[in-house]
Amino acid sequence: CSVTCGKGIQKRLLTCAEKDVAGKHKELVPKRCQLVQKPDVQLERECNLAACPRLVTHTVTNSARARWYSSPWSQCTVVCGGGVQARSVQCLAHGMPSSGCLLHQKPAMSQACNTNFCPEPEKKDVPCKDYFNWCYLVPQHGVCNHKLYGKQCCKSCSQSNL
């Protein structure tokens, strides 16, 4: 909830994802879900917490001045590659919304997160085998580094490197 007491807003994020072969959710770029119909879900709703405490005094003291209050950071929008976290920030005085806070002191409402590079997708192992009966000659002539011979005679070349 965006507030610690009283009436606030709960938000949730809808992201593009799929389950990988291990059953884990893998987040995708939004473009990958362009042709997929978005589920009909509510992304925002009101939340009502216990009433905020009210001060009984009639005079406003410096300690009861309006202050900025922020909710916890939301979950990052991505697991890697650079995402965003958001939070709600409110100016409150006596637990009630106020306009008495200084704007230059307002805490950030968003921040970068998970800025590490995403790991490269695992490459499937191509079976290493010889495609020709003359492949035993390739390592003997030292041409395993040749683009064609190295690939076509993978088994003979890999055995010669041992």
From TrEMBL:
InterPro entries, per the entry: ADAMTS_ADAMTS-like, PLAC, TSP1_rpt, TSP1_rpt_sf
GO molecular function, one term: metallopeptidase activity
Repeat recorded as keyword: yes
UniProt name for this protein: ATS16 metalloproteinase
Keywords: Hydrolase, Metalloprotease, Protease, Repeat, Secreted, Signal
Residue intervals of the PLAC domain: 124-161
Top-rank lineage group of the source organism: Eukaryota
Organism of derivation: Polyodon spathula
Matching Pfam families: PLAC, TSP1_ADAMTS
Phylogenetic lineage: Eukaryota, Metazoa, Chordata, Craniata, Vertebrata
